[in-house]
Specification:
The protein contains seven helices and 16 strands. Keywords: Glycoprotein, Membrane, Receptor, Signal, Transmembrane, Transmembrane helix. One of its GO terms (biological process) is immunoglobulin mediated immune response.
């Protein structure tokens, strides 16, 4: 049986991988191309990830291949190339790119057409003018696009996109009616290729924003915002003071009920449960509740029924009386004898 030493196996695989390392590092770059403002073609490969310098060449259909004359570099590495566009109609032709590494490895990528990969420059010099007699806002701008009839402009209000989002064809101005002078607007415009010249999927960047609204209105709004903030703080402070004042008045008018546990402890520990001494009843008040008269006592005797029955009926039986002697009956014979 043959045994394979594990460290030797790892070193063998490492030596096999090292010769192919340049091939792995020279992986096919991802090339993306677009036409800038119908003036030149810009091709970018692996932006911000390049670790070597590439050479680039390209050609349109029915044209010769040309090496790149203007490279785009980042961190001292080539990441792109700009190719002049001789004729805008070339955007409808096939475009072939060739990217070569330092080890003469060439990677090819073909584009059927760059028609939908056209990006125009952003409009500039956007201005806003208020027309007093018809209460209209006039927006005007400039563009570097060579063919004005092939451009579509898109306007927006950055503060409220639902209020203004419209497209304008060919012309470089737009009139906005029913504008509120008490509102603050921020306008921007961008452009793309119109459908009559071959629609593009790319829009230009937005133009620099332009604000509209009188400085007085804007400053007035800012002043009111500061005033509202100060008033809010003052109202909050007054509410806190009122709360403290009402709480203090509540304590004075409705004092806190004392805890009865301490007094009950005194009743059982100090006074041994004697309520009279605990509540401190005065001698005079205690004597006032004592009775100052006497009543004669009366003995109550139980009446026993007679055990012997009388056989002869009695017409009017004498009522049974108690055998108890009353003080008043004992004195009657004496009074009769004296009489």
């Amino acid at each position: 049986m043959t045994y394979i030493h594990t460290p030797r196996l790892y070193f063998g695989l490492l030596f096999l991988i090292l010769p192919f390392q340049p091939c792995f590092s020279a992986a096919a770059p991802n090339v993306e191309c677009k036409i800038i403002n119908l003036e030149y073609v810009e091709c970018i490969w692996n932006p911000n990830t390049s670790t070597m310098n590439y050479t680039f060449s390209s050609k349109f259909a029915n044209d010769d291949s040309h090496d790149c004359r203007e490279y785009i570099s980042e961190h001292n590495y080539t990441v792109g190339c700009r190719i002049p566009l001789k004729n805008p109609s070339q955007s409808f032709s096939e475009f072939h790119t060739f990217v070569s590494t330092e080890g003469n490895h060439t990677f090819k990528k073909n584009f059927d057409s760059l028609q939908r990969r056209v990006q125009l420059n952003a409009p500039y010099n956007l201005s806003v003018k208020w027309i007093e007699h018809n209460s209209t806002l006039l927006l005007q701008w400039n563009s570097t696009t060579p063919k004005n009839n092939c451009v579509v402009y898109n306007l927006r209000n950055q503060k409220d996109a639902t209020q203004l989002s419209t497209n304008v064809t060919e012309v470089k101005s737009y009139s906005l009616t029913q504008v509120s002078r008490n509102k603050h607007y921020v306008f921007q415009v961008r452009s793309t290729v119109a459908g009559v010249c071959g629609s593009s999927d790319l829009w230009s960047d937005w133009s620099p924003p332009v604000e509209w609204g009188s400085a007085e209105d804007i400053s007035r709004q800012g002043w009111w915002q500061w005033l509202y903030g100060i008033l809010s703080v003052l109202v909050l402070f007054c509410l806190v003071l009122l709360l403290c004042y009402c709480e203090r008045k509540g304590i004075i008018l409705l004092p806190v009920v004392p805890d009865p546990s301490k007094n009950l402890q005194d009743l059982f520990h100090k006074h041994d449960g004697n309520v009279e001494s605990w509540v401190h009843i005065s001698r005079e008040l205690k004597d006032a509740f004592e009775p100052d008269y006497t009543e004669p006592s009366c003995d109550v005797c139980e009446v026993t029924p007679s055990s012997e029955a009388d056989p002869t009926p009695v017409a009017s039986p004498a009522p049974q009386t108690d055998k108890c002697d009353e003080p008043s009956t004992a004195e009657e014979p004496a009074e009769e004898q004296s009489s």
